[in-house]
Structures are given as structure tokens and as C-alpha cells.
Design a protein that fits this description.
heterotrimer; A mainly alpha (300); B alpha+beta (365); C mainly alpha (313); A: MetI-like fold; 0% strand; B: 365 residues; 9 helices; 25% helix
């Protein structure tokens, strides 16, 4: 009997302690959720408001007393139709797509070659060059757009979206090279030695070993490159002005806002469609996207 | 199939000599193990044979042909790495066939060779898997398979077993030996593990500080080490070394290891050791040659009593440790004969296996 | 047979000089190949970053028509103008306040997400990063619409609770608040992601050891989390400082510098003078004022990244 009580008492106490621990943890969790919901609301207001406005009729948008946060009179795709049929939106979309694809291809070729060389092969001055690349990444576009304006004008490329293909790589190449150096140098040295013994030359080593093995890095860099080119604003704002040459960001915020009365429904529809490609890529490749974001500070 | 030769090969890294003028002849079909502590230059030597490092001086010959200027892929060698270096994005089949595909072998021949190698290594079922899905031992086999399919002149192994757990290591050791017996390719194998070296090698090359200490069959190294380093490196637990002095004792010699203990030197060794009487020497004797008194015809003067410090039962045998002078000495005894720690025990030193080392140059006399 | 050549004989043989062997040639060729692979990158960086940077300095010493060398007159002119001094002031307020709040919100949300059960974390992280993913120019457009003078959705809420409507972009001080708010909204998720990654890289054993040593949650944060994250926090803050300092999209779209030039930052002011008014040299001078702060931050970031690289190994 005594033995039983002796063992059961501590057990009761232990479970009580455990209970309060659990309760404490549960409270912390509930609080976490409450605050997270508040932050999530803050973070998601603009995209939510974009969607709501884009689906409202012009009358409801203009009507002051109706609740702007809700779709109280049903929804319409009228704005999307107007946008695609009566504006140059599709031209902007096409221009942006052309520029982005070219920039992605140029950037990836240039930076993968350079990263392979800097991360693996080493030559005189390669260490300094790698540091230089990182510093270049830190030079913002707003520091360079005025001299580049002069240069682009000198090349006769002012108001041509091909000028974007020329200057966007300054935004993408340094970072992509930097993170690819990190990915490449995390590949064990023995792997290229094995490939060397197996008979691979430099190009075969790059295309058949390094690129496939560092594929997650390649995807992350490509996504980064895509989103940067798609969202770029300073250069096109400074270098482009006629409607047939504009890209989405500048076209949407300048060219579509020409009427005296802002057509907010259509503008939000435009913003939504323009933001869709990066958002879709993000939705499907979130992990790569995030890996690319954090790689800059943790690799290399 | 080929022989390999090194002639006065030197490797300098930024003026530090990692390998100092070593010369070595490896005949066709032989299995040679380079063994030594880390930093002794064994891996560098192997990598020079592979062409992954350039020799700073000297010649490397494969099949009688100087290969210093030949890039790795044209040396017709295959290498197995410590971390296996399997291509993670390729299946086992693709891994094994990569070298052949780069050399544009016909498809049928590739398949035939890979399947043959897979059969030897018993990995036929794994050909479609990726390295990530394999266990350590299986990866090891694939790495070997990749070497076998190339049918090279020389196999090079760089510490291939050190990433495996102890049990698997023993198993793969046997496997490597079996494969070598089957394919009979000249093999150079690098390890820091002397047991691996002894069990695998036709000949063992013991390296230390960038030099070759001794080359010999495992038996030669065990029984006739030429230097103190080899004597201490080969054998486990390591040989005991005790400072000692030779004294004349009638017509024979005796070896004084402390005020308390002196042992008669066997008559067969008397003439060899006589010139060293009176010098300070190091006496070396393996733990397995210090036992409880056993065997016929032992000299009772070689028996002695000590107080044990530590007793380590191993199951089949028991290690007992005691102190002679200031030196700790280990001995391997029958478990039933061992006393407890702090207790006295009667032991017998079998001096027929003794070594005497000149501390001035660390050579075995 | 294995055999060592007699040591004496081998010692007598003269060591061959480090000959220009084939492998040596191979190494040299390898290094030329490596250089060639870097060439496109070097060309891009030199012609589109280094050259323009130098060119910008040259431009800043010219007069408006770019016909005459005026030395530092452009800089002198700027420093005497009240509008420019306000730009400097506003840029500093904008960058420092925004980075501070981004860092705080990022740290708090990262901790909140990290507290959740592992399987829910992905979903929340995905949701909270959305502001960073939408192209800034486009999300700024929707903020502008949210701040609309007559239709502001925020004012609708305020009025519903009986408050006075706010002239978000009409009142200079509210306009300053608004551009900072949008910047915080856009940038906080980046901090969240960086901190979350850093939190995940703190070994769990450290927390267990701290718990056994009797540390409570706050002490664990101070003594384990913060020291382990110090470096990444520094890198992120400095990096964000550069990006925020150089920000263009938000101010350009929402206020274009107004009202009364009170929200101008370097980039928008340089754009106004250089592109809109066509005084390229003056615009170049304005943007060059960003250079010192960027250079200093860059040096510290580089140091931090190197250190972190070593810590991670």
C-alpha cells in the first residue's frame, strides 16, 4: 500500500506541472495566431482591395456611401474586358514578356558561366572579382539611371524596350552570379575530380554535373531574375515614353491613368493581371523563391 | 593491366614539401596499400598518380610510360573517393556508365559492361535508383562499380571505407578484396587504418612525414619493422616501448628495463645486439608477447610480477595495463588469468619477439 | 615486386626543376578558360555599372547644357537650396524609420511563425510574403487608391467609427507617414523570411542547454537567439537601408514628391531634375549624394556576409 501511494503522489504532481506547461504553450499558440492574423490582414489589404475593386462596376466604385471593402452589388468582368480590348495593356504585357525572357536568358548564361569559373576554377584576381560582384549588387538602379540615360540616348535606344534588355542585367547578373557561386562551391570537390577522371572537359563538367546538381540554385536564380525584370520600374520610367514601347509597370501606372476620372476598376484589373505572373510563379515554386531570397546572405 | 612506378616524386604546396622524393614500383596486378597518419602524404601521392595533382619533381610512370603530362582522363585510371563522389542527379546505371558515355562507347557495350560490373558487386537490383536512395555500403559498391566498368589500367582508392560504420567497413573490406581477386587490376589503396592495410594488401607502404618508412608484406612489417615508427604503427594495440639498457650477463646479454626488472636476451640475438651493450636503447615488445606464463620452454627469468593499474576485458582476451619505470605497458592475457586492478599479477615477456631501437635514429637494430 | 629505390641513389639524382610540363600547360589553359567564362560578366559590369558610375561623376561637373566644366558648382548649388536640404532630411527619415519598423515587424512575425506547429508554418510564411512578391509599382498603385482623397477605403472605416477623414496624401505629414507605411508593408516580409531562415539555423541543442540551465523564454531570446542572429540582422538591416534609401517607386507613384516637395527622396528628386527638367548634370549630382551612405553600408555588409560564411562553414 505505502509503496503505491509513494509512487502515485509524484505522478500526480508531474501531470499537474505538465498540464500547466501545456496550458502555457496553448496560450502562447493562441496569441501567436491572433497576432499573425492581424499582420496577415495588414499584409493582404492591398491585394484584396485590388481584387474587390477590379470586380466592381464603375457606378459602385464611384458611389460614396457603399462599403468599398465589399462587393455589395455583385461582380463584373467588365474592367478586364475594357482593359484588354480598349487599352494598350496587351502591348505592355508582350513588351514585358519579351524583355523578361531575354534578360533571364542573358543573365543565366552570363552568371552561370561566371559562377562556375569563379567558384571552381579560380584564376588570377578571381577572389577580388567575386567580391566586386557582390558590391555591384549593392549599387542601386537609382544611382545609375541618369548616366545610363545619357548612354542609352547615345546608343539611339531611348524609348525602345530593347534598351531594357541592355540595362536590366545590371540588376540581375551580380546577384545571380553571387548565389550561383554559393551553390557551386557547396558541390563537393570530389565530384568534379570524379568527372575529370571519367573524362569530362570543362564544358561537360558544367553542363552534365554542375548545372543538374545545382538545379535548385538555378531555379532560384531564374525566379529572382524573372521577378526583378518583371517588376523593374526606374529604368523604364526614365527611358521609355511611347505607348508601343512601355512595359507593364510603367504602362499601368502612367499610361492607363490618362482620363480625368481615374478608372480605378480598370486600373486595379490591370495591376492584378500585371502582378499575376510573379504571383503564380511564387505560388508554385515558393520554396525555390525563398531559397533564392535568403541565399544572398548565407552563401558565398 | 599495368604496372605503376614513381621515381623521386616530390610534391610541394607553397614551399611545404608534402611528398619528399619517394620512389616506388608496383608490378601488374598487385594490391598496394599506402598507409600512414594524416598528413603523411599518402593521399597526395595517390592524387599525383591520378593526375589530380601535378608532381613538383620526379616521374610518374604507368605501364612504363611517363604520364606527368597526361591529364587524368587519358591516364586510364579509375578512382574511388572517400565520400564516393557519386553524381547525385544520375541513377546508378548512369553513374556507372558516365565515363563510357563520355568516351562514346556503343550503347550495347555500355549496357553489357555495367551489367557485368553490377553482377560482380551484387547491385543489379539498384541500377535504377539514385544515390540518395542507397545505404552507405551500397554507395560504396556503386563507386567501385563505376571504376570497374571503365576496365582501367589502375584502380585508385582514397580512404574508401572511412565513412562507413565499423561493421560495414569489415564487410566492404572483404568485398574489395574479393573484387580484386576477380578483376586483378593493379590497385593503389590509401588508408590511415593499419588493420585495413594489413588485411587488404599484397604489399604495404608505410608513409610518414612525406617519406616512405618501409615497404613490405603485412607479415614482414609485423615481424620485422625497420623503424620505430613502423613498429609502433603496425599492430593493435600498439607495441610497448620502454627505455632499456643492454648488460653483459656471463656469456649472454640481459636487458635491464628498470632497477627491478631485467630479462635475458635470447641466444639467437646475442651476436646481433652485442655491439650495443651499454647504450641507452628503446625496448619494443607487442602486448600479445607479454602474457600470463604460458607455453612450453619459456625462460623462467623472463617472468615478473607487477601491480595492475587498469584492466580492460575485451571478451576473447583481456588487456591489462601496468607501469614500468615511468612508462605504461599493455599486455594481452587470458581473461581467466587476469587479476583485478590494483592487484599483483605474474606475467611473462616473450623476448623471442623483442625489438631494440636506437633512439638516436629510430632504426630497429 | 615492390621496391624502394636506394635512398642514396635517389638523393644523388638531381631533382628535376619544376618543368613546364603538360599538366602545367593544362593548368594555365584552365585559368584562361576560367577567365574567358567570366568575360561576359566583366564586360557587363564594366560597361553598365563601373563606367556609368564614373560617367555620372563626370556629368555632375558639367553645366546644364553639358558644354562647360563647372567643377563642384552643382553640389554647391544644391547645398544652398532648401528643397534639396529637405530631400536629404526626408530621405534620412524615410529610410531610418522604415527600416526600423520593417526590422521590428520582421522579427516579431518571424518569431510568431516559428512558434507555430511545423506543418502550418509553410502556409503562413507563404501568405505573409505576398507583399514582397507583387511588383512594387503595382501594389503602390493599389495603396494610392486606398489613400484616394474622396474614395479612401481607410477613411470609410474611420468615418464608420465616427472619426474625421484623413487627407492621406494631401497633408504633407500624413503623406510622409503614408509613403513610410507602404515601404514598411512592402519590406517587412523580406525581414521575416531572413529572420525565419536564421531562426531555423540555430541548433535546437542550444535551446535545450539553455532550458536546462534554467533560462526562461525571454532569457533564451536574449542569450541564445539574438547572439546567433546578430550577424544576419546586421546584414539585413544594412541591405534594407541601401534599398530603402534608394527607393523610387513608392514616392514617385503616390506623391511624385509632393505635397510641397515634402516627400521627395534622392531618387525622385534626381528623376525630377535630371529626366523631367532635363538638367542631367544636376540630377547626377543629386543621386551621387547617395553614394557615401551606400558605400559605408556596403563595406559593413560585406564584412557581415564573410563572417556569416565562416560561421556556417
Amino acid at each position: 500500500m505505502t509503496a503505491v501511494t509513494a509512487t502515485s503522489v509524484p505522478r500526480v504532481r508531474a501531470s499537474r506541472v505538465q498540464g500547466s506547461l501545456q496550458r502555457g504553450r496553448r496560450w502562447a499558440l493562441v496569441l501567436s495566431y491572433v497576432f499573425l492574423v492581424i499582420f496577415a490582414v495588414f499584409f493582404l489589404i492591398p491585394p484584396y482591395y485590388m481584387i474587390v475593386t477590379s470586380l466592381k462596376s464603375n457606378a459602385e466604385v464611384a458611389h460614396l456611401s457603399s462599403n468599398p471593402w465589399l462587393l455589395s452589388q455583385g461582380f463584373t468582368f467588365e474592367h478586364f474586358r475594357t482593359l484588354l480590348k480598349e487599352t494598350d495593356f496587351l502591348i505592355y504585357f508582350k513588351n514585358t514578356a519579351i524583355v523578361t525572357v531575354c534578360v533571364v536568358v542573358i543573365t543565366m548564361v552570363v552568371s552561370v558561366l561566371a559562377a562556375f569559373s569563379l567558384g571552381r576554377m579560380k584564376f588570377w584576381g578571381s577572389g577580388i572579382l567575386a567580391t566586386g560582384i557582390f558590391l555591384t549588387y549593392l549599387v542601386p538602379d537609382t544611382l545609375l539611371f541618369i548616366p545610363l540615360f545619357q548612354i542609352v540616348r547615345g546608343l539611339g535606344l531611348l524609348n525602345s524596350y530593347w534598351a531594357m534588355v541592355l540595362v536590366y542585367p545590371t540588376l540581375t547578373v551580380p546577384f545571380c552570379t553571387w548565389i550561383m557561386i554559393g551553390y557551386f562551391s557547396s558541390i563537393p570537390k570530389e565530384l568534379d575530380e570524379a568527372a575529370m577522371i571519367d573524362g569530362a572537359n570543362h564544358m561537360q563538367m558544367l553542363t552534365r554535373i554542375f548545372i543538374p546538381v545545382a538545379l535548385p540554385g538555378i531555379i532560384a536564380a531564374t525566379i529572382f531574375c524573372f521577378t526583378v525584370s518583371w517588376a523593374a520600374f526606374v529604368y523604364p520610367m526614365a527611358f521609355l515614353y511611347s505607348s508601343d514601347q512601355l512595359v507593364l509597370t510603367v504602362g499601368t501606372v502612367t499610361s492607363l491613368i490618362r482620363a480625368d476620372v481615374y478608372q480605378w476598376g480598370m486600373l486595379m484589373a490591370g495591376a492584378l493581371l500585371a502582378a499575376a505572373p510573379p504571383l503564380i510563379i511564387y505560388a508554385f515554386l515558393m520554396d525555390y523563391y525563398i531559397a533564392g531570397l535568403t541565399a544572398g546572405a548565407t552563401k558565398g | 593491366m599495368a604496372d605503376v612506378a614513381l621515381r623521386d616524386v616530390v610534391k610541394r604546396f607553397d614551399n611545404v614539401e608534402a611528398v619528399r622524393q619517394i620512389s616506388l614500383d608496383i608490378p601488374d596486378k598487385e594490391f598496394v596499400v599506402l598507409v600512414g597518419p594524416s598528413g603523411c602524404g599518402k593521399s597526395t601521392t595517390l592524387r599525383m598518380i591520378a593526375g589530380l595533382e601535378e608532381a613538383s619533381a620526379g616521374d610518374i610512370l604507368i605501364d612504363g610510360e611517363k604520364v606527368n603530362d597526361v591529364p587524368p582522363k587519358d591516364r586510364d585510371i579509375a578512382m574511388v573517393f572517400q565520400n564516393y563522389a557519386l553524381y547525385p542527379h544520375m541513377t546508378v546505371f548512369e553513374n556507372m556508365s558516365f565515363g563510357l558515355r563520355l568516351r562514346r562507347f556503343p550503347k550495347a557495350q555500355i549496357r553489357e559492361r555495367v551489367e557485368h560490373a553490377a553482377k560482380i558487386l551484387d547491385i543489379t537490383d539498384l541500377l535504377d535508383r539514385r544515390p540518395k536512395q542507397l545505404s552507405g555500403g551500397q554507395r560504396q559498391r556503386v563507386a567501385m562499380g563505376r571504376a570497374i566498368v571503365r576496365n582501367p589500367k589502375v584502380f585508385l582508392f582514397d580512404e574508401p571505407l572511412s565513412n562507413l560504420d565499423a561493421k560495414l567497413r569489415v564487410q566492404m573490406r572483404t568485398e574489395i578484396k574479393r573484387v580484386h581477386q576477380k578483376v586483378k587490376t593493379t590497385t593503389v589503396y590509401v588508408t590511415h587504418d593499419q588493420v585495413e592495410a594489413m588485411t587488404l594488401a599484397d604489399r604495404v607502404v608505410v608513409m610518414n612525414g612525406g617519406r616512405i618508412e618501409q615497404i613490405g608484406t603485412p607479415q614482414e612489417l609485423y615481424h620485422h619493422p625497420k623503424t620505430r615508427f613502423v613498429a609502433g604503427f603496425i599492430g593493435s594495440p600498439a607495441m610497448n616501448f620502454v627505455p632499456a639498457r643492454l648488460e653483459t650477463n656471463g656469456s649472454g646479454l640481459s636487458l635491464r628495463v628498470s632497477d627491478k626488472y631485467a630479462f635475458p636476451v635470447p641466444a639467437t640475438r646475442t651476436e646481433r645486439y652485442r655491439p650495443h651493450v651499454g647504450k641507452d636503447l628503446t625496448f619494443g615488445l607487442r602486448p600479445e608477447h607479454i602474457t600470463e606464463p604460458r607455453g612450453e620452454g619459456r625462460d623462467p627469468r623472463s617472468e615478473f610480477t607487477v601491480n595492475l593499474d587498469v584492466v580492460e576485458p575485451m571478451g576473447m582476451e583481456t588487456m591489462v595495463f601496468f607501469t614500468v619505470g615511468n612508462t605504461e605497458v599493455c599486455s594481452r592475457v587470458e581473461p581467466s588469468a587476469a587479476s583485478g586492478p590494483g592487484e599483483p599479477m605474474r606475467l611473462y615477456a616473450n623476448l623471442n619477439h623483442m625489438h631494440l631501437i636506437d633512439p638516436a635514429n629510430d632504426q630497429v637494430l | 615486386m615492390v621496391d624502394v629505390t636506394h635512398p642514396l641513389r635517389s638523393a644523388a639524382a638531381p631533382a628535376a626543376p619544376a618543368a613546364k610540363t603538360g599538366l602545367n600547360r593544362l593548368m594555365r589553359r584552365r585559368s584562361s578558360v576560367a577567365f574567358l567564362m567570366c568575360l561576359p560578366l566583366i564586360v557587363i559590369i564594366t560597361s553598365l555599372v563601373i563606367y556609368p558610375a564614373g560617367y555620372s561623376m563626370f556629368l555632375s561637373t558639367l553645366n546644364k547644357a553639358q558644354t562647360k566644366f563647372v567643377g563642384l558648382d552643382n553640389f554647391r548649388f544644391l547645398l544652398k537650396r532648401d528643397v534639396f536640404l529637405m530631400v536629404v532630411w526626408q530621405s534620412a527619415i524615410f529610410a531610418i524609420t522604415a527600416v526600423l519598423f520593417k526590422a521590428l515587424i520582421g522579427l516579431v512575425t518571424a518569431h510568431l511563425v516559428n512558434n507555430l506547429p511545423a506543418k502550418g508554418q509553410r502556409k503562413w510564411r507563404g501568405m505573409l510574403l505576398v507583399p514582397w512578391v507583387i511588383p512594387l509599382a503595382l501594389s503602390t498603385l493599389s495603396w494610392w487608391w486606398l489613400f484616394d482623397p474622396t474614395h479612401s477605403a481607410f477613411n470609410y472605416v474611420i468615418e464608420a467609427f465616427g472619426g474625421e477623414p484623413i487627407a492621406w496624401l494631401g497633408n504633407p505629414y500624413w503623406a510622409r507617414f503614408s509613403v513610410i507605411l507602404v515601404n514598411v508593408w512592402y519590406g517587412a516580409p523580406f525581414f521575416l523570411i531572413m529572420y525565419l531562415a536564421a531562426l531555423k539555423s540555430v541548433p535546437e541543442q542550444l535551446y535545450e542547454a539553455a532550458k536546462i540551465d534554467g533560462a526562461n523564454a525571454w532569457q533564451q531570446f536574449i542569450h541564445v537567439t539574438l547572439p546567433m542572429m546578430r550577424n544576419i540582422i546586421a546584414i539585413t538591416v544594412l541591405f534594407s537601408l541601401i534599398v530603402t534609401f534608394a527607393n523610387f517607386d513608392i514616392v514617385q507613384i503616390m506623391t511624385a514628391g509632393g505635397p510641397r516637395n515634402m516627400t521627395h527622396v534622392f531618387a525622385t528628386y534626381a528623376f525630377l531634375l535630371g529626366i523631367r527638367s532635363g538638367d542631367i548634370p544636376l540630377g547626377a549630382s543629386v543621386s551621387l549624394f547617395m553614394f557615401p551612405i551606400l558605400a559605408i553600408s556596403a563595406v559593413f555588409i560585406l564584412r557581415g556576409v564573410r563572417k556569416r560564411g565562416r560561421e556556417i562553414g
